[in-house]
Amino acid sequence: MEGDAVMNSIFQKPFSLSGLVMGLGGVALVTFFCSNLPRANVTTAGFLFLMVVLGVAATSGLRVSVLISLASMLCYNFFFLPPLGRLTIADPENWVALFTFLLTALVASHLSNRAQVQAAEAKRRQHETEQLYALSRAILLTEAVRPIGTQVAQTIAQVFELSAVAILDAKSGQRFQGGAREVEEGDARLEEVVRVGGHRRYDAEVLDIWPISLGGSPIGALAAVGNRVSDGAVQSMLNLVAIALERVRTEEAANRAEVARQSEEFKSTLLDAIAHEFKTPLTSIKAAATGLRTIDPERVDDQQELTAIIDEEADRLSQLVTEAVKMAEIDAGKVKLNRIHTGGEQLLESARRSFEGRGAERIAAQAIESAAVLVDGELMVLAIRQVLDNALKYSAAESQVRCAGRVEGGSLLLRIADQGSGIPDRDRERVFDKFYRRASTLHKVPGSGLGLHIAREITRMHGGDLWVEDGAGQGAVFCFRLPLATGGKP
After folding, report:
1. Residue 313 to residues 160, 225, 285, 319, 358: CA-CA distances in angstroms?
2. Residues 111, 135: one domain?
3. Which has fewest Cβ within 10 Å: 9, 148, 413, 470?
4. Which residues contact 225 (CB under 8 A, 6 or more apart)?
């Protein structure tokens, strides 16, 4: 491959008329002086002709040096080999000398020209290496003040001296321009190169388009006008552009993640502030209602009943505010687990008591195997309460919610089964998504679509999991799996 490149360089070099004239002049001068100097012999003339040929080969290329070699051979034969003044040779030894001279001149010309071409090739490669280094350095030092893709396109045009450059990011559909003018061709050709692959050259526009690949997959295309870069340098340039495009995507993802994080922190702070504002009047309402009920606890009338309702609803509002703050903290990743040893029966009982007056009598704890788990009691009760609340809302008013628990494979498995309409297979994973609510129950049952999401997040924070199973035609069964604590029973 390298030899082919050298030969192409040799024969693509333009013919030098001035070099031919100077070479013929040199041959004439050697002929004149050697013919008129009494001490100049045939050997001296031959060496001087050879020096002229080498000088022409070094300055004007192989094609001119071949012509000068033929001219030198003819002058050498005509003026210095007997019979003089004729293009014939009497002595066979002179034939050998003549052709040896011609062969030496041609070989020497070729070697001189080859060395010259290789030196030019080495210089070109060094220049391309410097260009690639400048491009890689520019990519590493790009700042997010302007779009990175635009900066890369402009750097490529500047470093490789291209009239126009366009980079298409196939994933986002963005197009970045660089150079003194724009690539007038639309995105259709670039998209075709991304889809089909392979280098395309359009001679009418002197436009080259290459696919940009990363890991064997096409991620974009690069178009250039006025390209004079070798294929090897182009491939290196495309690899650098692929890295730049990947950096663009990474920075965009990081920016989106940072915006999301800040949004979650803002939401958590806002909810926390609102919760504290709610807590003060709720505490006052709770204190007033409790005071009214204790003035005359034996009295049963409408006032006492309304006071009881105020008391219960104040408790419920206080609990909802506390849960909203916990949910915001979990989403923002600010929760620190305060783990304690406890049992599944205690967790279920604590969650059940929070429903006093709101359906606690419907929650039936069946066989709960005694086993210790190391969890944050407050958070796990919150998670179980969300599932119990979901079971109470989505089942008939008089039906029971059955709770059971057993040790299975190094974990405590808690099962909460309702007698509702059940959950279709297609929705069993989606019910744990944030704000997801099934269309069939959207306007029938109140809720925000956050409870099950928070319950699963809390469970997974403890190294466990939460999922839903079919209740064999009798509703849905929500299953908690919590790792057992080391150290026995609670």
Report:
1. 74, 74, 10, 10, 10
2. no
3. 470
4. 162, 163, 164, 165, 179, 181, 183, 205, 206, 207, 208
Which has more confidence, 41 or 300?
41
On the CB side of 147, CA atoms within 13 Å amount to 13
SS3 content of the chain, % helix, strand, coil (to 5): 60, 15, 25
Q: Check whether residue 347 and residue 479 sit in a common domain.
A: yes
Decide: residue 18, CB within 10 A, 0-12 exposed, 13-18 middle, 19+ buried: exposed
Query: How far is residue 314's CA from residue 289's CA, in Å, rounded to a whole number?
Result: 9
**Structure token digits, residue 17:** 């008329």
Question: Within 10 A of 360 (CB to CB), how many other CB atoms are there?
Answer: 14
Residues 206-224 as b/e (b if ≥16 CB within 10 A, e otherwise) read ebbbbbbeeeeebbbbbbb
Let me know whether 231 and 183 are in one domain.
Answer: yes
Q: Provide the angle, in degrees to the nearest 10, between the axes of the packed helices 302-331 and 451-461.
A: 50
CATH number at residue 469: 3.30.565.10
Average pLDDT for residues 320-324, to the nearest whole number? 69
The set of residues, in sequence order, having a beta carbon less than 8 Å from that of 83 and lying 6+ positions away, is 90
Token pair listed for 244: 């730049």
Structure tokens at 102: 């011609």
In this structure, is residue 488 part of a structural domain? no
pLDDT exceeds 60 at position 327:
yes
Among 25-39, 121-135, 227-241, 303-317, where is mean pLDDT lowest? Answer: 303-317
CA distance 181 to 465: 58
Same domain, 263 and 243: no
Supply 155's token pair. Answer: 């750097």
Q: What percent of the chain has pLDDT over 70?
A: 72
Q: For residue 480, what are the CA distances in angstroms to 19, 435, 468?
A: 92, 21, 9
- For 365, half-sphere exposure in the C-beta direction (CA atoms, 13 angstrom radius) is 18
With respect to residue 490, please indicate whether it lies within any of the assigned structural domains. Answer: no
CA 5 from chain centre, in angstroms, equals: 37
| pTM above threshold 0.85 | no
Please state, as a whole number, how many other Cβ atoms lie within 10 Å of the Cβ of residue 157: 22
The residues that bridge with 469 in the sheet, in sequence order, are 477
Choose the final residue of a domain: 94, 124, 154: 124
Same domain, 103 and 192: no
In the chain, how many domains are there?
4
Burial annotation 113-136 (CB, 10 A radius, 16+ → b, else e): bbebbeeeeeeeeeebeebbeebb
Query: Of 89, 106, 124, which closes a domain?
Result: 124
Range of the domain at 108: 2-124
Verify that 208 and 261 share a domain, yes or no. Answer: no
